[in-house]
Specification:
By secondary structure, the protein is mainly alpha-helical. The protein has one domain (about 1-225). Helix content is about 75%, strand content about 5%. Strand 1 and strand 2 form a beta hairpin. The two termini are about 35 Å apart.
């Protein structure tokens, strides 16, 4: 259910804002993991690691602002969606780390996946979600179903590796490692926008690109301080 809710919030944010702006906001999660793990697990980090987390927060604030049609700075409406997602994911990671004190990795993974398989279909009991799901799935070409299956397989592999890392070291540090992903998202989004401009709603204006590049660099610096 957690994964299902994660995808709902993340995809709603993508409909509101550009992908390379939404993704950095997604990396506020380590800040909440740091807070929760310190309060509930007693984890303590070094000075450099705290500075790294501060840089991640600054970056998230930087990319969450955009110039509106009225020529003033306004918070991106995607911010609230991603903040809710960050809190959910942080809680998930801290609970997982706590559970690893009592069960092994494979037992946790079994129950995690079983819960997802059982609970996620319950979302279809909502009439609004069910109608939207049926309306969206009918016109989808067969090749897109194959891509969805491939994407789900990649996500599952990613979660296996992620939780394996959580079981081995501080959960706050593990949660910060994926913060290098915006570099890859920015690079791929730019390439797709150049060669397939209608595929993504991605702005290639110079000012916007400078902000995105600065945000990506800040995230990389913050991540380096966290893991160094």
């Amino acid at each position: 259910m957690i994964l299902g809710l994660m995808f709902v919030l993340y995809n709603k944010a993508l409909l509101i804002e550009e992908v390379s702006r939404v993704t950095p906001l997604f990396y506020l999660t380590p800040l909440f993991v740091l807070l929760f793990s310190s309060l509930f697990l007693g984890e303590r980090l070094s000075q450099n690691e705290y500075i790294g987390f501060g840089l991640l927060v600054f970056c998230a604030i930087l990319v969450s602002f955009r110039r509106s049609e009225l020529k003033y700075m306004a918070l991106s409406p995607a911010l609230l969606l991603i903040l809710a997602l960050d809190l959910i994911l942080a809680g998930k990671d801290v609970i997982a780390k706590y559970m690893f004190s009592y069960i092994d990795f494979w037992s946790f993974l079994f129950w995690f996946m079983l819960g997802e398989l059982i609970v996620r279909p319950l979302l279809l009991f909502s009439p609004a979600i069910r109608r939207k799901f049926i309306a969206d799935i009918k016109p989808v070409p067969l090749r897109l179903y194959a891509l969805c299956l491939i994407n789900c397989a990649i996500v599952c592999i990613g979660y296996v590796l992620y939780f394996d890392a959580v079981s081995r070291t501080y959960v706050a540090l593990v949660s910060a490692i994926p913060s290098v992903q915006p570099f890859f998202v920015l690079l791929i989004a730019i390439m797709l926008s150049v060669f397939y401009p209608k595929l993504l709603n991605e702005s290639l204006e110079r000012k916007g690109m400078i902000i995105k590049a600065i945000a990506a660099v800040i995230i990389l610096i913050g991540s380096y301080l966290i893991v160094s």
